[in-house]
Structure formats: C-alpha cells, structure tokens
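Board notes (copied after class):
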Amino acid sequence: MKKIFIILTKSPTLLSRSIGWITKDEYTHSSISFNSTIQPMYSAGRKYAFSMFPASLKVEPLDKSFYKYFNKSKMGIYYIEVSDQAYYKTKEYVETMVAKRLPFNAIGLLLCKTKIDYPRKGRFFCSEFVSTALQQSGEIEIIKKPNLFRPEDFLKIKGIKFVYKGIIKDAVGRDFKDLLPKEEDNQ
C-alpha cells in the first residue's frame, strides 16, 4: 500500500479570510503530495505571493514564494492509503495536469461556496483539482462532485488518516514518516 497525502491550509490572505468567513471552515486551501516530506505539493494556486492572479495548476514549494511569506499559516496533513496501481495512476494524472498549467477556476470557486453546480472544463480551483485527482485513483470515493468540493470535505473521505497539525514553517524540510504508524511505513 502507498500513501497519498492531502495538505490543508488557511492563510491570512484576503481570499482565504473571505472563504473562511463565508464557510466557517478551519481550512481554505488544499494540496496533494505523494511522499511523507509533502514535497512537492501540487494544487491550483497563485503565481505570485501577493497577487491572487494569475493563478493555475502548479507545484507549491513550502520554502518559497507564497508559503515563504505566509509561513505562519495553519496546516493539517492527512493521508489515504491506496494500492500501488492507484497511487501511480493518481500521481501521473496530477503531474500531467500540472504540466499543462491549466488556469484557475475563479468562477467555480465562487459558485462552489454558494453550492451552485457549474463545472468548467479545463479549469480548477484547489479542492476541485485535488478531489478530481483522488477520483482518478479508482479507489477513493469522493463524497460530492469535485466542483462542489471544499477543503474541509477531505476530512470526510472514508479511510483518511491524520498525520500533523501545526503551522507551515514547522513543516519545512521535515519528513513526516516518524508520525506514521510503524507498520505502515513505505515511503
């Protein structure tokens, strides 16, 4: 069995504060990673730390750009165990989509918060992208349509397990393998 890591965060940006105010959720952003160092992380996010646009699918380093400036942001790390085949299928999907640098789905983000079902092909907001990627595994049941998926919804997925809760700067350069159950260490 392999692990797919889901990283949930909440930053002090205007967008994150607005989403949190509307949803009352603990987390407002989600990313996906395929190893216990949670690097690289992948998601739909901003290109520049202090500007919401432009934004697209991208690799999100914890020690550069956005997370370097907002390193006191709240973070939760979780994982889901899947077969080797599902792991590699999901990872390939994520890497292929990120390489395309598909644009951010700003309209979808707004509509998700109002629970309006309006999927937009070839565009993603963070939790829409991560939930779509998890669906690609063929083993993880997503509880609602990806374009209506919020970061908090990941905590409701069957089989998700807690790893860490803290702030981003304490996660930089860390391998979370030591927090995983010993009999499950595989990465």
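Comment from the instructor: The domain at 2-181 is CATH 3.90.1720.10 (endopeptidase fold (from Nostoc punctiforme)). The chain has a mean pLDDT of 93.
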